[in-house]
Amino acid sequence: MSADATAHGYTVADLCRRWRCGAEKVYGFLRRAELVAVTIATNLCGRPQWRVTAAEVEKFERRRSSTPTPKPPRRRKKTVEIDFYPD
Fold first, then answer.
1. Are 25 and 17 in contact (CB under 8 A)?
2. How confident is the model over 60-72, as a mean pLDDT?
3. What letters, b where the CB count within 10 A reaches 16 and e where it falls short, cover 21-36?
4. Is residue 73 in a domain?
5. Which residues have C-beta within 8 Å of that of residue 65, sequence separation ≥ 6?
6. 47: CB partners within 8 A, 6+ apart
7. What is the total count of domains within the chain?
8. Cβ contacts of residue 18 below 8 Å, gap of 6+?
9. Which domain range does residue 18 map to?
10. Do 50 and 38 touch, CB atoms closer than 8 A?
């Protein structure tokens, strides 16, 4: 994707190439408002032409990226000392 296209935002086709997925998956993200976009269509009753800013793509990717879950701290057994030979 060229620098000029990045300045104007990503299209659905650009995101499909970037994430290697189908257009329906990207449209699903838009429908569920997981991905915020702006339509630049001249006729609002017609088919939308979505543009997603680079900042929104970064936020979406950060939110959807997998990170290892932190391991809980190990619990130590409480040991009780028993004095078998009291004085």
1. no
2. 84
3. eeeeebeebbeeeebe
4. no
5. none
6. 41
7. 1
8. 1, 10, 57
9. 3-63
10. yes
- Is there a domain that residue 39 lies in? yes
34 is a domain residue: yes
Question: Exposed/middle/buried for 69, CB within 10 Å: 0-12, 13-18, 19+?
Answer: exposed
Please check whether residue 23 is in contact with residue 16, taking contact to mean a CB–CB distance below 8 angstroms: yes
User: How many helices, marked H, and strands, marked E, lie in the chain?
Assistant: 4, 2
Q: Tens digit of pLDDT for each residue in 1-48?
A: 555 556 789 999 999 999 999 999 999 999 999 999 999 988 888 888
Tell whether pTM > 0.85: no
- Residue at 78 is within a domain: no
Contact yes or no for 12/27 (Cβ under 8 A): yes
